[in-house]
Structures are given as structure tokens and as C-alpha cells.
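Supplementary Note 2. Why include the ligand at all?

Several targets in our set were suspected to adopt different conformations when bound, so apo predictions alone were not considered sufficient. For every target with a known small-molecule partner we therefore ran a joint prediction. The input for pyridoxal-5'-phosphate is given below.
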Amino acid sequence: MLTPAFKYGACTFEGLRGYQDAALKEVHVFRLREHLDRLRFSMHVMRFDDPPPDEAMRRALRELIRANRIAGDCHIRLMVWVDGDGEQTATGPIGWGMAALPRDADPRVREGIHVAVSSWTRIGDNAMPPRIKVTANYNNGRLSGLQAKTDGYGGVILLTASGHVSETPGACVFIVREGRLITPSHTDDILESITRATVLELARDELGIAAEERPIARTELYAAEEAFLCGSGNEIQPILSVDRLKLGDGQPGPVTRRVQQVYFDAVRGALPARRGWLTPMLGGAAP
Ligand SMILES: Cc1ncc(COP(=O)(O)O)c(C=O)c1O
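The joint prediction is reproduced in C-alpha cell form.
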């Protein structure tokens, strides 16, 4: 209980997904390299001593999935923390661990969600940088999530201190205007999301949909034809209304559906050009 990970939230982490490839009897982890790179960056900024090597984490992940006989879709949490009983500036010893749990399809991906704009402000880069995935940051999301839940919403969008749209507690935001995708810039206190980068790349290369990264004002959310949130855990969830103002006809829109289709094609290995994003866990030996 005296560990800096508990006392001060000195714990970095990643949330990843594994997807079943039934034909190949495989479970593929999506964009493992990018998640390990981001974890390394988080540990670097938090000045952790002696971070675990990528190869050790890759090996442990394969063993974890095999030992737990996970043969279907799953969610993986990988955590690295400051262990021991040190003070606030302790940078070691380092502990790490991971868990993988089966996860079924989330109905919110098909049905969409109603979101509110939070009265809580997004944490800022010069205080608790959202660019790094540190558990302590997530109390900002927790407060806004609890408020939204109490008020009967399925999700919540935070604004930056200067009033721009930032992100949700666990996902990035896209809006659609005149058929174009728009998403907040990296300077608007967001995590550098791997799913956001994936959506930008797939929209441009596979769908021919133009995309912009720029500041978004709160009322531009209300003006959007469509919107969705994206993240490894949330995948692609249509946003049906913001602050009870309906977007479009209040149903998941056509651009959102196209993005979902191409995203799920990519994670399930149906886009040959993107198979490099998939790391097999079982070697074709699903239990
Ligand atoms: C605050 C926050 N924003 C965005 C995301 C989406 O990031 P990614 O697409 O890398 O999972 C996450 C999820 O990890 C998150 O926690």
C-alpha cells in the first residue's frame, strides 16, 4: 500500500485489443508496436528507471494469452509502475504486469451513444500531460464520467482550459461536416491515440475521405452532421446527440458506418495492405 504507484499514481499503462481470426485459428493484437512505443514514451517522461524491454513484454503477452487459453476477442491491460515504498520522486524499483480478458462485441458500437459536454475541464499539458498514459490522469476522466452517468448520459466530452473540444475520458473524437472528417489537434490536450491515427490513415487511403486535424469549438459539435469516438477499448462508437441536441437524424451516419467497416476490416486482417498492424499470439495453434 506504500508503493508510489498507489500513493502518487506513478503507474503507466496501455489498453490493447486482441481480435480473433477464426480462419487462421489466431488471435492478433492490433498495433502492438505502437502501444509499446507509447508506453516507452510514458515511462521516459515519468523518468522510470530500467523500463522492461519490449521483447520481455511481447513474450509475456504471448504466454499470457496462451496460458489463459484465450482464442477469441480480448482486451489487454499492460501496466508498469514504481514499486517499493519510495517517496514522490522515486523512479524505481519498477514493477510490471499484464492481464487479458475475453471481451464480446459492445452494443454501443452498433447502436451509438448520447454524450454530454462536461463542466469539468480537461487536464493540461503543463500540469498532468494527457499525452502520456499515467493512471493518475484518469481521475479527470473519472470525475467527468461520474457526472455524465449521474445525469443519464452514455458518454462525455471534455473541453480544454481554452474551451476547445479535447477528448472523452478514454477515446478521441471525430466530427463530420460536409462529408469531411475533423478531429482535435494533438495540441488540444489529447492522448496521441493509435486508433485516431488509424482512422486518419484509413479514411485517407482506403475511403478517400478528407480529414482535418484542428481546434473544434463546443458549438461545432452541435453543428456536426455526424460524430463518433474512437479508441482501442471503445473501438468506433457513433455519437447520436450532444447535450441532448440530435446530430443529423439521430442515428449512426453513413460516414461513421464506412469508418467502422474499414476499421473492423483492418483489425480482423481483411485488409491485406494493413496486416503489418497485426501481431499473432498463438502461431496458428488456437486451443
Ligand atoms: C484519454 C484517452 N484518449 C484516447 C484514447 C484512445 O487511444 P488509443 O486509440 O491509442 O487506444 C484512450 C485510450 O487509450 C484514452 O485513454
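Residues 15, 167, 170-172, 191, 193-196, 231-233 surround pyridoxal-5'-phosphate (CB under 6 Å). The longest strand covers residues 11-21. Comparable summaries for the other entries are listed in the accompanying table.
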